[in-house]
Design brief:
Layout (H helix, E strand, L loop, with lengths): L1 H8 L17 E3 L2 E3 L8 E9 L19 E3 L7 E7 L5 E8 L8 E6 H7 L6 E8 L4 H8 L12 H12 L13 E2 L10
Parallel strand pairs: 3-7, 4-6
Antiparallel strand pairs: 1-2, 3-8, 3-9, 4-7, 5-6, 5-8
C-alpha cells in the first residue's frame, strides 16, 4: 500500500523530451468525455487559468511538474505539444509547452498555464483571462529552452488590428452559456481538436 501511494506522489519521472508524442485514448472526468487528437490546425479562443501548487507532482506526460516553467495543461492536444498563447487584453504572446491534462473545472477554460507561463503572459494576478491558443512548431532552439525550463524567444505583441479582430470574435462568440461547448470559439478551419 505504501509503495502504491508513493507512486502517485511522484518519483520515477519521465525525462523532459519531445518524443514520443502521445495522443492517448478518450478519457472521462466529472462526466465529460475528452477525445485527444493530433489537431495540427488547433486555433481557439477561450479562457486561460493557471495552476502552481502541485509542484513535484507527475504531469499526464509523466514529467515532473515544475510551476516556474513555461508549461500548460490541455484536455485533448498531444503530449507534448507547443502552442502560442495570446492574451486578448494586451496582445502579449508566448510559446508554451503542453505536458499535462486539464483544465476540468469550468466550461470555457481551454488551457491551464503553469504559474511561470501565467507570469510571463501577464495574467497571474487575474487568475483567468481571455486568450487565443494556437498550435505552433517552434524552432529547435526554442524547444530546447522550454524543455530546460527557460522561456522561448520573445514574440512581438499582436498588431492592434489583429488584436481587435480577435476581441471582436471573442465578444460575439456567445461566451456566457453558449450551449454545450461553453466558451470555445474556433478561429480557423473549425475545431480539429475534439473536446476542450
Amino acid at each position: 500500500m505504501m509503495l502504491l501511494l508513493s507512486g502517485c506522489a511522484g518519483g520515477n519521472y519521465r525525462p523532459v523530451r519531445d518524443a514520443p508524442v502521445r495522443i492517448g485514448p478518450p478519457y472521462a472526468v466529472r462526466g465529460t468525455t475528452y477525445v485527444p487528437a493530433a489537431a495540427p490546425g488547433y486555433d481557439m479562443l477561450g479562457y486561460a487559468s493557471w495552476y502552481g501548487n502541485e509542484s513535484g507532482n507527475r504531469t499526464a506526460n509523466g514529467e515532473r511538474f515544475r510551476p516556474g516553467w513555461i508549461t500548460a495543461a490541455h484536455t485533448t492536444l498531444p503530449l507534448p505539444t507547443y502552442v502560442e498563447v495570446t492574451a486578448l487584453d494586451t496582445g502579449r504572446r508566448i510559446v508554451v509547452r503542453i505536458n499535462d491534462r486539464g483544465p476540468f473545472l469550468r466550461k470555457g477554460r481551454i488551457i491551464d498555464l503553469s504559474r511561470g507561463a501565467a507570469e510571463r503572459l501577464g495574467i497571474k494576478d487575474r487568475g483567468e483571462a481571455a486568450v487565443r491558443v494556437r498550435r505552433v512548431e517552434p524552432s529547435e532552439k526554442d524547444r530546447e529552452r522550454l524543455r530546460a525550463g527557460k522561456p522561448a524567444g520573445a514574440l512581438e505583441p499582436l498588431s492592434r488590428s489583429d488584436l481587435e479582430a480577435l476581441r471582436t470574435r471573442f465578444a460575439t462568440g456567445g461566451w456566457a452559456g453558449a450551449g454545450e461547448e461553453g466558451a470555445r470559439v474556433p478561429i480557423s478551419g473549425g475545431d480539429r481538436g475534439g473536446g476542450g
